[in-house]
Design goal:
Elements lengths: L2 H22 L7 H19 L2 H21 L8
Helix pairs in contact: 1-2, 2-3
Length: 81
């Protein structure tokens, strides 16, 4: 299997896992944001490899929303002293 396929499919599956976790509304749902962040990083890597600039822009934007979700869920430190 090529690296492109690994990045594409692992990013897609990780994103689906993140969505399922958030939709579950269980006490572990907030960890879906971490799955989304991992999916974003995988898909950014893939977009760069295949030179898909539209996908890259989308994933950079989704990375910002994933970081916001991590912050709001309490998984990201709220103080930076």
């Amino acid at each position: 299997m090529t690296l492109n396929l690994v990045l594409e499919w692992s990013g897609a599956v990780t994103g689906l896992i993140g969505a399922a976790m958030l939709a579950s509304q269980t006490r572990h749902a907030r960890w879906g944001w971490l799955a989304f962040l991992l999916a974003n990083l995988l898909l950014i890597s893939w977009a760069l490899r295949i030179q898909a600039m539209g996908l890259l822009v989308q994933q950079v934007g989704f990375t910002a929303t994933s970081l916001l979700g991590l912050y709001r869920s309490g998984l990201w430190p709220r103080t930076w002293r």
